[in-house]
Design a protein that fits this description.
The complex is a heterodimer of chains A (159) and B (104). Chain A is of the alpha/beta class and 159 residues long. Chain A contains five helices and five strands, in the order H-H-E-E-E-E-E-H-H-H. Chain A has one domain: Mannitol-specific EII, Chain A (3-Layer(aba) Sandwich), CATH 3.40.930.10. In chain A, strands 1, 2, 3, 4 and 5 form a five-stranded mixed beta sheet that branches. With 104 residues, chain B is an alpha+beta fold. Chain B has a single domain, classed as Histidine-containing Protein, Chain: A (2-Layer Sandwich). In chain B, 28% of the residues lie in helices and 22% in strands. Chain B has a four-stranded antiparallel beta sheet with strand order 1-4-2-3, with helices on one face. The chains are: A alpha/beta (159), B alpha+beta (104). Chains A and B meet through helix 3 of A and helix 1 and helix 2 of B.
Chain lengths: 159, 104
């Protein structure tokens, strides 16, 4: 699969500024809007959905990785972002460790011409395989540019 | 005078336990159920391995569990071992049978 293609440079960050979870999600949503991936009219809905998801259970899956992901009404294709926080963010993660690497996934509520819901579990599995790779985690945190980060996604997409 | 033979009852709480459990919730073993499995496992000391087809992973890691891509209808093979292995496998099978208590 070529899930790496769903991550656009303008919607990613190698240096998130936020120092808490709420600020981080807001920063990411703003990146998606500025990057032209998410309509500005959906900014509030996207942020609310991501915050609500965190209330159900933290998306901090351990190993310094979080995967905030929600269904969002009003989009017709999957929107992704990869962000790194150098300082680390308290995410109430399952292992208690701070989150440095964020994979954000917004997906349509229903199937569309450009979205097959059957791919969701494979996409999440692909992200999980990357996240559990110590090499990926180490390299992505050292990446100085978004191009380097996206290059890693592509290079390691066969993990 | 014959000494009575004392046979210790088997200690079912230790050793390996293996069971199969089918995924019943429509969304499969996605992130939230993985979180539920790991949260449950962390209440016990036993080791936990979960297998879906040819893939076997550490059941105490959300990232590992997510790589299984287990969908509704898939049959998982669960293996627990250690001090409270039986209690863990029973609790886990209950969680899976309940669809991870998801309303979907």
């Amino acid at each position: 699969m070529t899930f790496w293609k769903e991550f656009k440079s303008k919607s990613c960050s190698s240096r998130l500024k936020a120092d808490d979870k709420e600020q981080a999600l807001e920063e990411v949503v703003d990146l998606l809007v500025k990057g032209g991936e998410l309509d500005v009219d959906l900014r509030s809905e996207a942020l609310e959905a991501l915050l609500s998801r965190e209330q159900l259970a933290s998306t901090g899956v351990g190993m310094n990785v979080a995967i905030p992901h929600v269904k969002l009404k009003g989009i017709d294709r999957v929107i992704c972002s990869l962000c790194v926080s150098r300082a680390g963010i308290d995410w109430n993660a399952i292992d208690g460790n701070p989150v440095h690497i964020l994979f954000i996934v917004l997906r349509p509520e229903r199937a569309t011409d450009s979205h097959d819901p059957e791919h969701h579990i494979q996409r999440m599995s692909w992200i999980a395989r990357l996240g559990r790779e110590a090499d990926f985690r180490r390299f992505v945190q050292r990446a100085n540019t978004k191009a380097e980060m996206l290059g890693l996604l592509k290079e390691m997409s066969a993990v | 005078m014959g000494a009575s033979e004392h046979v210790s009852p088997p200690d079912d709480s230790k050793g390996d336990h293996v069971r199969k459990a089918r995924i019943v919730n429509s969304e499969g073993l996605h992130a939230r159920p993985c979180h539920a499995v790991v949260s449950l496992a962390r209440e016990y000391k036993a080791d936990l391995r979960i297998c879906n087809g040819a893939s076997a992973v550490n059941g105490r890691s959300i990232l590992e569990l997510m790589t299984l891509s287990a969908s509704q209808g898939d049959e998982l093979e669960i293996t627990t071992s250690g001090a409270d292995a039986l209690a863990l496998i029973e609790a886990l099978c209950g969680l899976i049978a309940a669809g991870f208590v998801e309303n979907d």
